[in-house]
Design a protein that fits this description.
By secondary structure, the chain is α+β, with helices and mostly antiparallel strands. Helices cover 56% and strands 16% of the residues. α10 (274-317) packs parallel to α13 and α12 (332-368) packs antiparallel against α13 (377-403).
């Protein structure tokens, strides 16, 4: 019996037992659907997060009090440190010759837990409550890759002279100045007049944080309005990427010396690089990926067990058919190949349906939630191979059992 004839017999068996075929497929469909959905969402999140983290470039590092908080001990250590100041930034800017651009920003949270400060922003009759206000230096646009949809960014003159200029986030501009050009218009931030000089491009959400609802003003003006108590975060951009480590060492030595840190003491601040953030994210997603694949594999194992049981039932039901085929000249390996093919094709069809459903669910998740999803060829091929492998393993024992049947005994079974 050739391969095509065997495949024809397999599909004839499927048509004869439609309900049994569907039930056999169900476990594999669920398993592959889950795997494809999880993989497409994790791949989508990976691409989005990595592009967002690295949008400032790999040659930028940040100096602040906290750094990467990955444990309770790290949090306690950070809480014992003092905030950095604008004077720290000025020192790095002046003395670190490998630090090409140095910038700083301070942030008033939307509702400060420290001073319970309420921030109101108005323009005419339009009003916004509790936006994020950033006090920035002029070079913040360079170190943080700020892009404008219109207008210009804050200048060094405005920073040095505490000018009341403001760059609005995209949604802030839309809310305060609907249908009109905001450039040159006035906004009131806690009753202080600021002239709008630029509008940031639309950045969207990043893990639930809306990056279009912020206002950036010169850090000198910021300190006039909100005082000097808010911490300063320092960003450094290094022109020569090969000298990143050397530049960090220079900045570290300068700040340790300024803060009078002894040799045995820690820095009293943290330096965080883009590469460290990417590494942390990849570690996190690798763990989550392995856990989700492990959970999804349970459905595939159950699907494989179902296939094996159904195939064993099929061998019993078709014992006389097997006996008749052997009596007419079919060899044991023909019978074995038929049952193996039946199992593999069954699982592969279930895998294909699972891939299709996984792609649909992944797309629905990206449409109805902030989680992006991407379906790439690799996971699709892996899903189909995985399903086929489940069919091959599950169908092996029933195929061997069918192949070993004695034709005379099998014919008598009817």
């Amino acid at each position: 019996m050739n391969l095509m004839e065997t495949i024809r017999l397999v599909f004839a068996s499927f048509r004869t037992n439609k309900l049994r075929t569907f039930l056999t497929l169900l476990g594999v469909i669920i398993g592959v659907t889950t795997v494809i959905t999880v993989v497409s969402v994790i791949r989508g999140m990976n691409r989005y997060v990595l592009s967002t983290i690295t949008e400032s470039g790999s040659n930028v590092f940040r100096i602040d009090r906290f750094g990467l908080i990955t444990s309770h001990e790290a949090w306690l250590t950070a809480m014992r440190r003092k905030d950095l100041t604008l004077e720290d930034m000025e020192l790095v800017k002046k003395e670190c010759d490998l630090c090409t651009y140095v910038s700083a920003f301070s942030l008033v949270p939307s509702f400060s837990s420290r001073n319970q400060l309420q921030i109101d922003v108005t323009a005419g009759r339009q009003k916004i409550e509790d936006p994020n206000i950033f006090g920035v230096t002029a070079s913040f646009a360079i170190t943080n890759h700020r892009e404008l949809s219109t207008g210009r960014y804050i200048t060094e003159w405005e920073e040095q002279h505490a000018a009341f200029s403001a760059v609005l986030g995209y949604e802030i501009a839309q809310a305060l100045f609907p249908q009109i050009d905001p450039i040159g218009k006035t906004v009131h931030i806690n009753s202080r007049k600021f002239q709008v000089v630029g509008i940031l491009k639309k950045y969207g959400n990043f893990f639930g944080e809306n990056r279009d609802t912020l206002i950036e003003i010169p850090i000198s003006s910021f300190r006039k309005v909100f005082g000097k108590r808010e911490p300063v975060f320092i960003y450094v951009k290094v022109e020569d990427n090969a000298k990143m480590t050397e530049a960090q060492d220079q900045a570290r030595v300068l700040l340790r010396s300024k803060h009078h840190r002894r040799y045995e003491e820690d820095d009293g601040f943290a330096i965080m690089t883009t590469d460290a953030l990417v590494e942390l994210w990849q570690t996190f997603t690798a763990g989550a990926f392995a856990a989700m694949i492990g959970i999804s594999s349970i459905a595939l194992i159950v699907g494989g067990i179902v296939i094996m049981n159904i195939m064993l039932v099929s061998v019993v039901e078709r014992t006389s058919e097997i006996g008749l085929r052997k009596a007419l000249g079919a060899r044991s390996k023909d019978v074995k190949r038929q049952f193996l093919l039946e199992s593999v094709i069954l699982a592969a069809v279930g895998g294909a349906i699972g891939v299709l459903l996984g792609a649909i669910f992944g797309k629905l998740i990206s449409v109805f939630s902030p989680l992006p999803s991407i379906l790439e060829p690799g996971p699709v091929i892996a899903g189909l191979l995985l399903a086929s492998s489940v069919g091959l393993v599950s169908g092996f024992w029933p195929a061997v059992k069918a192949a070993k049947l004695d034709p005379i005994v099998a014919l008598r079974s009817e």
